[in-house]
Amino acid sequence: MSTGFLGTRASWAADLNLIVQIVLLVGLVVDRILAKRHNLTGHHTWMTAVVAIDAVMIIAIMNPSFFRLLPFAWQRLGALGPMVLWLHAVVALLAELMGLYAVLAVRMDLPESLRTRRLKWFMRINFLLWVLALVAGIVLYWGRYM
Q: Is residue 146 within 8 Å of 8, Cβ to Cβ?
């Protein structure tokens, strides 16, 4: 009894979000390649697009799903499912906020006091957080809809 398009019990929105998040990860890999080749204009454009699209997916699809699961997650804090949910929520929020900061730092002329001095390390950590958030999201999708 599937309502989504991937043949699972997931909704159409959950299936769409899964596909979009995987595409965004591919976009981040392309983004890293552009940065390595010193194509900073392309790098900034890709990063802005990825952060903006992810923000839309978080607001439109993930937040409503999270708040539907919140009572369950509070009641069973020690269970595996809620622990993965909290890991995903916290890491994904941190990754999105770091991505937003990076976009603002590049697109706007931030005062020196608000700039990070080690932007490459900041972006590498941000990339790793995005990957961890995606893996946790895939685990959640698998556990809930497969």
A: yes
Residue 22 identity (one-letter amino acid): I
Of 7, 5, 28, 27, the closest CA to residue 17 belongs to: 5
Domain extents in the chain: 12-145
Tokens (6 digits) for 62 = 């993930």
Look at residue 11 and tell me whether its pLDDT is greater than 60.
Answer: yes
Whether residue 73 contacts residue 85, with contact meaning beta carbons closer than 8 Å, is answered with yes
Amino acid at 85: L
For tokens 């909704």, the residue is: 11
Helix/strand/coil percentages in the chain, nearest 5: 80, 0, 20
Angle subtended by helix axes 40-57 and 12-36, to nearest 10: 160
Judged by phi (left if over 0) then psi (alpha if -120 to 50, else beta), residue 7 lies in left
Summarize pLDDT for 45-74 with one digit per residue, the tens.
Answer: 999 999 999 999 999 999 999 999 888 888
Taking the complete model, does pTM exceed 0.85, yes or no? yes
